[in-house]
Target: alpha-L-fucosidase
Amino acid sequence: MKSSLIKAVFLGLVFSAYHTDAQVQTVDNSKKMEWFKNAKLGIFIHWGIYSVNGISESWSFFNNYINHENYMKQLNGFSASKYQPEQWVNLIKESGAKYAVITTKHHDGVSLWNSNAEKAISIPQNSLAKKDILSPFISALKKSGLKTGLYFSLPDWSHPYYDINTRTKLRYEVKNNPTLWQNFIRYYQDQLNELSTQYSPDLIWFDGNWEHTSEEWKTTQTIDLLRKHNTDIIINSRLNNHGDYDTPEQGIPVIPPQNPYWELCYTMNDSWGYQPYDKNYKTPNMIVRTLADVISMGGNLLLDIGPKSDGTIPEEQVEILKNLGRWTSKNQQAIYETTRGIPFDNYKGKSSLSNSKKSLFLYLEEAKNFTKIYGLATKPLSVKIIGDPSASVKVDYNPEKTLTLNFSKVKFDKDVTVAELIFDTPPVFIKDFKKEEHALAEILNKKNAQEAAYDIANTLNYGNNLLTREGLTNDGLGMQIKKTPTTNPETLEWISKHAEALFETGKGLPAGHYPGMSALSKDKQTLYLFVEGTPSGPIALKGIKNDISRIRIVGDGSMLSHTIYNKLYWSDRPGIIYIDIPKERLDKQMTVIAVLLNKPVELYRENVGAIENNL
Model:
């Protein structure tokens, strides 16, 4: 790392994250990546001495929140006295995960295994536990048939051969002391040799590459070392432009990463390691829906747990894993061996395709009477609800290539219901298909007011406001909309109640921000969300840069609260906005939520990459 950059970091001026694309592969890696691509769910484990005081792993001393000496005193409290690795593995397997990644050594330099590398600090040699805690877990993992992933920090802020100690303390300049730096390279590569020979990992999960260049890390040499032990080793992208797959962190991507192989590493609350006062947990429902979101974009979810210093896993985390297991065991064929779903224009929700492309899976996050797929040139052979053989789905397929699925006889899952559309051959979805164009009079005459509201919202989502110059008023009173004897009064009533969201409003959010239809006010400062049926949990918004002034139910007046998760105060990356709607306030046709922003809407559509620091 250049000295000018080091100074900037230490002065606290560089608080940004960047995305490093995985190295362009010169060989076909599809065979070795097959298990990873099909896995869809892995469990991340952050376990170390930081769990003793329940403070931020490594960063707490790096940022001078606690000095290094007091941080390392946690070695004396790390007991692992109730550690039962077989129970960990059983719980991980029950969750539906196909692999696990454990922190063998974080940036603090404390190794979970008995490392013989020069001047290594390890749990067996230096902690109260006095035992190797990594080996029994890896042994149990391999016996279970799950794949083995090892997290390894490139930086080691405690090691005397490493150049950086804390944000404000530098031991030496690499360019002025190349011998000492080479000693560190030998140290960390010795540790990788130990991990490779002792544990034969399927995957190495590097972290911390931002502190030095690829040349300084001796990246090519390190990759050769790892491949000498396992030619099919999978390496994440945090090795300076080398690696097999991307690792976005915390923020669920709005736009799917370009790399066909990617994995979202994600916390259950706001912390990676165990922190007793962090009770800001996402609900089990939110986590299931996050997994469905990631699957629909063709990625994996690496969900983190942070065990306590005695080796027990917090109850909240156990509950989340068990609920995940309930859902994954029920919906296996819609999770594993699936690929990225169909475009948002074709279906306003989350979806995926089987590897054969002969099954299309729809992830329904609400109980509703119907849904529509547009531009579908192939009619399915059948439609079923996974996990419910008694469910009956009525199918209507019209000449405009629109498929309507009726769910009136479906018992919905408490989190996400999965509908499977089965085809004889891979379905064809028409690109740039002509959007349905219904005259307002035709919609008003529909006997089903729910479908009428849906069609109005869908048309508006694309910027075609059917009610412009048709007699709608801004408050829905004194409307001059033309009626006929067959006009559905329930539809008119819905239009009147929700006039605010329909009067002079325009095109809604692009794909990725909200799994449904939306519209924007003329000044672009109020976002209207069309909510179908009864949501299984709070509705979610991604990639909204704005502050939220208030949220309310249109035509009802009720104010709603919201919660934001995964927002890092030092980053411009927005968090995920969750809005809970009381069930008793839902509209029987379609509920509309108004989100008032502090200024015209600004969207975050950048790639979500690795986090470089944790202030």
About this structure: The domain at 39-334 is CATH 3.20.20.80 (TIM Barrel). The chain has a mean pLDDT of 93. The chain has 17 helices and 29 strands. The first strand starts at residue 41 and ends at 45.
